Amino acid sequence: MSGEPVRLGVLGLGRAFTLMLPTFTRDGRVRLVAAFDPHESATAAFARDFGGTAHVSPEALCADPQVEWIYVATPHQMHADHVELAAAHGKHVLVEKPMALSMADCTRMIDASERASTRLIVGHSHSFNAPVRLARNLIASGRFGAVRLIQAMNFTDFLYRPRRPEELDTARGGGVVFSQAAHQVDIVRLLAGGLATSVYARAGAWDPARPTEGAYTALVDFAGGAVANLTYNGYGFYDSDAWMDGIGEMGRHKAPGAHQATRQKLMRATDEATEAAQKAQRNYGGNAYVPDASEPPPAFQHFGPVIVCCERGDLRLTPTGVEVHDTQGVRFEYEPVPAVPRSEVIDELWSVARKGSEPVHGGAWSRASLEVCLAILASHRSRAAIMLSEQVALPT
Question: Taking a C-beta distance cutoff of 8 angstroms, is the pair 176, 213 a contact?
Answer without folding.
Answer: yes
